[in-house]
Design a protein that fits this description.
It is a single chain. The chain is mainly β. A hairpin with a 4-residue loop joins strand 7 and strand 8. It starts with a strand and ends with a strand. The mean pLDDT is 95.
Amino acid sequence: QVQLVESGGGLVQPGGSLTLSCAASGNTFSSYAMGWHRQAPGKQRELVAAIWSSGSRNYADSVKGRFTISGDRAKNTVYLQMNSLKPEDTAVYYCNFRGYEVAGTSDYWGQGTQVTVSS
């Protein structure tokens, strides 16, 4: 059972920066991905960025060039550096861990952290 602990959300002015962290424990998968999804009020949850155990990364078009996802394998932690934040980035951000195995995939979610971009 993978457990995720998120931190780093908060209130920031437009144009500002925040860094989210997500620490995973209990990972026994050799192949996995960790990422961040977000959900704004009245909208569906959407993928923001993901990083695979291979090192590959993927970003939503809306955050390319502004957000950077990185990982520290030794700490089993993934980070999301968010720069040039916009009001439309306001959402609850959820950390996701997806483990891959022959039988299929397993998804685990963090509790969510609020990011509010407002002046």
